[in-house]
Amino acid sequence: MSTKINYQPWLQAVLSIAKHYRIEPSAERIRLQLDWNPNQNIDDILNLIARQVGLSLRKTDFSAEVINPWRLPVLVEFQDGQVGVIDKVDAEGNLSIQFSGDQGLSQTLASDTLAEHVWHVYILRPEKSVPDARVDEYVKPCEDNWFWSIVLRDWKRYIDVMFASLMANILALATILFSMNVYDRVIPAQSVPTLWVLAGGVLIAAIFEFSLRVARIYLSDIVGKRADLRISDRVYGHALRIKNSERSKSTGTLYFTNP
To answer: Which residues of the chain have pLDDT under 70?
Structure first.
C-alpha cells in the first residue's frame, strides 16, 4: 500500500515563487490535477506543479552559488521534511526564508546553520523567454488596411510616375504645334530657317518625351515589383500559418479571406 504524499507545502512554496514572477495560476486547478494523477515521489509532484504554473524546474545541492541574490528565490527541502522559500540574503550571509504554512511570514537564519539542515534545493524560473522581435514582426495581427499600407509604402515614387506622365503628355503636343506652325508660318512665308528651328525644338521635345516615358516605365516596374513581393509574402505567409484543422476546404475561401 502506497503512502500518499502531502503536496500542500510544496504547492504553497511554488505558488509563492510564482507570485514573485507575477504569475497568477489557479491553485484549485492544480490541486485537482494532483489529486487525479498518482505521483510516486516529490520530484514528480514538483514537475507537475511547475508545468501547470508555467515554471521550469531544476534540482541541485545547497551551495553559496545557489543563494546568490541574483538567483533568488529558490525552494529548499529540509532533512526533517519541511519546505521553504529563500527570497532574500544580506551582506553578512543571513538568509530570509518563508516556511510553508506560515502564511508568508519570514524568519532569518544564518547560511551556515541552514546548510547543515537543507537536503535539496529546487530552482524555478519562468518558462517564458525574451520574445524574438523577428518572430513578433512576422506573426503580429494584421491591420485592417494592410493592403493599402503595403501598396502606398512607396507613395513618393507614384508622384514621380504621375509627374513624368504629365510632362511626357505635354511634350507630345510638340508635334501638333509643329504641324500648325509649318502650315501657318513656314509654308506661306517660305521660311526655311524657321522650319529648322521648329524641327530642332520638336526633336528636343521628342528626346525628352522618350526619356520621361522610359523613366516612368522603370519606376513603375520597380514599385510594382516591390508591392508584389510584399503582398505575396503577406498573403502566402498568412496561408502557411493557418493550422490544418482551421484550413478551409475551399481554395477560394482561403485566399479571399482578409489576411
So the answer is: 1-4, 38-40, 129-144, 242-259
pLDDT at 134: 60
Q: For the chain, how many residues are written?
A: 259
Specify the pLDDT at position 46: 83
**Residues 126, 25: Cα–Cα separation, whole Å:** 12
Query: What pLDDT, on the 0 to 100 scale, is given for residue 253?
Result: 55
Q: How far apart are CA 46 and CA 55, in angstroms?
A: 10
Strands (E), 79-212: 83-89, 94-99, 106-110, 118-126
**Which is nearest to 185 in space by CA: 174, 173, 198, 175?**
198
Q: What is the CATH number of domain 8-126?
A: 3.90.70.10
Q: Which residue has the cell 517564458?
A: 128
C-alpha distances in Å from residue 71, one per residue of 1, 38, 47, 138, 166:
40, 32, 20, 33, 69
**pLDDT reported for residue 1:** 40
Sign of the torsion angle spanned by Cα atoms 96, 9, 123, 26? negative
pLDDT of residue 259: 47
Q: CB-hemisphere CA count at 13 Å for 256? A: 5
CA neighbor of 186 nearest in space, from 173, 172, 171, 201:
201
Distance, CA of 9 to CA of 34 (rounded, Å) = 13
pLDDT on residue 258: 45
> What string of H, E and C letters represents the secondary structure of 74-96?
EEEEECCCCEEEEEEECCCCEEE
